[in-house]
Structure to design on (86 residues):
């Protein structure tokens, strides 16, 4: 099946409720165009795929780089320690 709101696909035998956004494809509002469009806008408002700059903070962007820097520092410490042993 394919969701009318978020356009995600899932196997037909698992039910009519979308696992990503929760829209019921067999519900009473499933054929109402206005309800589908309103649900689509609500889904866009709460996901980062449509507006990543407004929901991803500077800290969220900085943490992976700090982790990478810490990994490089630890690698250098291990390499220096191993050189001292040999």
């Amino acid at each position: 099946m394919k969701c009318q709101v978020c356009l995600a696909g899932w196997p037909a035998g698992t039910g009519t409720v979308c696992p990503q956004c929760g829209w019921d494809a067999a519900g009473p509002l499933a054929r109402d165009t206005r309800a589908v469009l309103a649900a689509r806008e609500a889904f866009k408002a709460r996901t980062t795929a449509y507006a990543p700059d407004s929901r991803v903070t500077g800290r969220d962007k900085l943490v992976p780089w700090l982790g990478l820097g810490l990994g490089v520092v630890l690698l250098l410490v291990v390499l220096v320690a191993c050189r001292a042993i040999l």
The chain has two domains: 1-54, 56-86. Residues 32 and 38 are 10 Å apart (CA to CA). The chain has a mean pLDDT of 88. The chain is about 55% helix and 0% strand.
